[in-house]
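Table S2 (continued). Query chain:
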Amino acid sequence: MTNFTGFLIWVLTAYGITNVLSESKILAPYRNKLKGKLLEMVKCYMCLGFWVGMALGWFWRSPTDIIILDGFLGSSVCWLLSLPESGLISLRTLLYDVRCKE
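Corresponding output:
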């Protein structure tokens, strides 16, 4: 497996785990029991992505070989990949803007 393929698998795994923990219906009863800051953290892709990235780096593989950097990488990747889903960025708008500027 190449470095890029391993990195891509790590990124998609981090996003997948974060998405399941934050949005899945099967875990909704457990999320609904959370309160305060813990509930905010589970609903926030950037926050939860940080902890998922650190856990992946610790227990599975570390793309950076530094666990805290794995957390920051997981945080940024999960946040970026969640933007179209959250409605903050529309892929249609991005494509339209690119075509209009040419």
